[in-house]
Design brief:
about 150 residues, PH-domain like, four-stranded antiparallel sheet, three-stranded antiparallel sheet, rod-shaped
């Protein structure tokens, strides 16, 4: 069976986007008010700092989200996860189980009692997680020599 590659998109940093939006809007509104009403220059500077902090947080959140993407490659011998943290890999022969959290998008590949490889998905992307787990199951069964029982 040929290798299959899956892209794992990171979670959207909603909290960072929300804080960024609030800080940017407050900073811009305060700056406009301070300039229109000829308030003290320190208030204009504070508004500018708030606006810049909001925009910097937005850029940092976007860069972090982009850098957190990972690639999962499944082949007949095993799996490879390529991410900004480096490459993790394992062989199907060493995999003892694959678990999935019930309320989030976390899948864990267990290799004995020591090694764990965790994959983080969007928790709403359940169909994609099911597709990947089905592919892992087929490859794990083939590596372990399991086959479908035909009833005979």
């Amino acid at each position: 069976m040929p290798a299959t590659t899956f892209s794992i998109a990171p979670r959207v940093p909603v909290r960072a986007f929300l804080i960024s939006a609030v800080a940017s809007i407050l900073g811009a509104a305060l700056m406009v008010l301070a300039l229109i009403n000829a308030w003290h220059i320190a208030l204009v500077a504070l508004a500018a700092v708030l606006l810049v902090v909001g925009l910097v947080l937005l850029v940092v959140a976007l860069v972090a989200q982009k850098a957190s993407a990972a690639e999962l490659v499944l082949d007949d011998e095993g799996y490879r996860v390529n991410s900004r943290a480096g490459e993790q890999w394992g062989e199907w022969a060493g995999v003892t189980r694959i678990t999935r959290s019930t309320n989030s998008g976390q899948v864990t590949i267990h290799e004995g009692d020591e090694k764990r490889t965790r994959l983080e998905f969007h928790s709403v992307d359940r169909a994609r997680i099911d597709e990947i787990l089905d592919e892992m199951g087929v490859r794990l069964d083939a590596a372990k020599g399991y086959r479908t029982w035909d009833g005979s």
